[in-house]
TrEMBL record:
Magnesium is among the record's keywords: no
Protein name according to UniProt: ABC transporter ATP-binding protein
Subcellular location: Cell membrane
Compositional bias of kind Low complexity: 9-23
Gene Ontology, cellular component aspect: plasma membrane
PROSITE patterns listed in its UniProt record: ABC_TRANSPORTER_1, ABC_TRANSPORTER_2
Domain ABC transporter: 30-262
One Pfam family this sequence matches: ABC_tran
Taxonomic lineage: Bacteria, Bacillati, Actinomycetota, Actinomycetes, Micrococcales
InterPro entries given in the database record: AAA+_ATPase (IPR003593), ABC_transporter-like_ATP-bd (IPR003439), ABC_transporter-like_CS (IPR017871), ABC_transporter_ATP-binding (IPR050763), P-loop_NTPase (IPR027417)
Keywords assigned by UniProt, alphabetized: Antibiotic resistance, ATP-binding, Cell membrane, Membrane, Nucleotide-binding, Translocase, Transport
Amino acid sequence: MSTAPPPAGGATVAAPATSGPVPDGAAPVVEVRNLRKTYPGPKGSPERKVAVEDVSFSVERGEIFGILGPNGAGKTTTVECLAGLREADGGTVRLLGVDPQADPAAVRDTVGVQLQEAALHEKITVEEALRLFASFYAAPSDVEELLDLLDLADHRRVAFGKLSGGQKQRLSIALALVGDPRVAILDELTTGLDPAARRATWELVERVRDRGVTILLVTHFMEEAERLCDRLVVIDGGRVVAQGTPAELIDSVDTSRTVRLRVPPADHDLALHTLAGLADVERVQVDAREIEVTGTRRVLLAVVLALAEQEIVPDDVRTVTRTLEDVFVAVTGRTYDHAADAAAAPEGASR
Ligand SMILES: Nc1ncnc2c1ncn2[C@@H]1O[C@H](COP(=O)(O)OP(=O)(O)OP(=O)(O)O)[C@@H](O)[C@H]1O
C-alpha cells in the first residue's frame, strides 16, 4: 500500500527540492545494501513485523530494474525507503550517491515516484494536473511533450474522474515524470488494467527509458517483469530470493528443454521409438495424442532431424517455455499467489 505524502490534489508524486547538494553523477543510480524495515506488530503485541530483511541490489543507469514478488513481499516498503518516504531500521540506501534519509530534498529532485493508488480531485483535467505539478519544480519537463509521450494529448481536457483505468495510469506516469527526474519509481502501474492496456503501458515504459530515465519497476506480474526488465530481484517474505536478468534466472532453475508435438496416428509408434533412442532426449511422455519430449538444449533440433529422417511430418511442434514463475516455485518451494492477478482486470479498466 502506498503511503506517499500527497502534494496538492492528493496525488503521489514526490515534492520538489529547492536546495541540497548536487547528486553524485558517477555513482550507481540506486544502491540498496542490507536494507531492513520493521513495522509495529498487531495491537497489543510487543513483536514488530519484519517487512524487509537484508535486501541488497544495485541499479545501473538506463536500466529497467524490476522488484518482483507476491503481495505483501516487501516491494513497496523497499521503494518507499529508497524514495525517502520511510525510515529504514538498518542497512544503507543511496540514490545517485545520496542518502534519502539524510538529504530528502536532493533525492526528491532526481526521482519521480508513481506509487499505488494515485488519486486526484475528480474534476481536475489531465492538463491542469500536469501544469499544477509542473509548477512545483524549478526545471520541470515540458508538459506538451509529456502529453504526447504518454498518449494523453487527446484527453487533455478530460476530468480525472472521467478517465479510464489505463488513462489514469498514464497520467500517473506523466505526473511521476513532470519533475524531469533521472530515476522513475513505478509501483504496480498495470494492476487493474486489461491485457491490451497493460501491453500499451509496457510500451510507454520503454519509451520513457529510451529518453534516458532509469526505471525501478515494482510488480507482482511475472509476465510484466519478464517482458520489461533488464534485471530484477525476486522478493518473498521481505527477502531477496533470486536476482539477475530474466534469462539468467530462468536458465539457473533448470537447463533441460521440453518439446511437445503431434504426429499422424499411423506414425505414432515409430515416432515414440525413434525419439526415445536419441542421445539428447532424457524423457518421452505421451498425453492423449501429444508426445512430450524432455532433453538437452539441443532437443528440439534432435527431434526435428530424427523425425525427418523417418519421413514423419509432425502436425504440430511446440517448445514449452519456462517462465519466472518456474523460478519462483524453484527458489521458494511454493506456488506463486495469483489472487491479485485474478482481481487485476476489472471491467472498464482499459484504455
Ligand atoms: N504501515 C504499515 N504498518 C504495518 N505493516 C505494514 C505497513 N505497510 C506494510 N506493512 C506490511 O509489511 C509487509 C510488506 O508490505 P509491502 O506493502 O511493502 O509489500 P508489497 O510487496 O509491496 O505488497 P503489496 O503489493 O500488496 O503492497 C506486509 O506484510 C504488509 O502487511
